[in-house]
Amino acid sequence: MKGFPKKGENLVENSEGYHVFGQNIKYQYEQKVLLDEKYLHRVDPKKPILAYTSSAAEIGIISESFYRSGDNGAFQGLIPKFQEYNYKHILYFLAILSLHFKNMGYTTGMSHINDLNIKLPYKNNEIYFEYMEKYIEELEAERIEELEAYLQVTGLSDYKITKKEQESLDKYNSMVKNPRAEQSRAEQSRAEQSRAEQSRAIMTFNSRELFGKATRGKRLKSADRVPGDLPFITAGESKTGVSDYIGNVVQIFSPNTITIDMFGSSKYRNFKYGADDHVAVIDTSKYNLKVGLFLTSAYNKAANTGIFSYARNFYAKDADNLNLSLPASENKTPDYTLMEEVIKVIEKQCIKEVVKYSRYKSEITKKIIQN
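-> structure tokens emitted (371 positions)
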């Protein structure tokens, strides 16, 4: 699939434009842009296509017209020859092809994909599309039922924001919007502000002073890894950096800690894990999940700035020098209670549409079953 040259990546946002896909079937640009028509790949939303990138060993669905970045052959579009298909059929194909592609990687090319033989339901000497569609619908109903149960157990089914939560969100928003808010503690002490103003400030705090010295993981080559149950974290976004499950004797990091990889990308870990030497670990284990998520976002903003790459790796010493922008309490210390409340509100805002969708699908399923 033709891609526009890398040198043309400095694009200007345009509301009438299209998204750009990179080498991992994820948006390279969040905004929409306009390019020459010759680079545009048109896709009917009702008839999505599959795309595979050998560079990242990923396969996914693309249901929108798009541009592609780069001219190398790592990105392949898998477009059905048959015309009568829909989104559910493509989901079925995606599930089957994923089983084949999960062990492929940089050495995979179009010849490997074209030579694949896959098993499909068949009836009257034709692909049984009706069965495929019904199968996906049954899976959807099953997953929606599981989702509803999960939402009930975790308490996430209640997405209504309380008065106290709204007040916390308003307080935080006022801090963020205040142009004078973000100051160092030294600047705060020098500034002649009222007590009320001080309590509404976003302040900067040094990572090492708050959470101690960052820890660096230890290198463990793929060939030396023993299969086991311990997640092993390496640099990268795929599978949130979990590259393997090992049984080796390595340093085990506690749950509720934060990892920052060689590119400056931060992740919250609520499980025990091992880590390689391209990962820095911040010990935030004494704080709960919601505070940990807020802190992870702050670390990501401070570290994932584009400065770090293969040429300039992020290390533990870099983590120690990070300054985090956090809401402060009246005594000029991080306001962890406010952080927790803000994440509660964001959680409810994010889950609202999921809850509505699950209930809508449940009602549709009930009607189908009754009929």
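The two ends are 45 Å apart (CA to CA).
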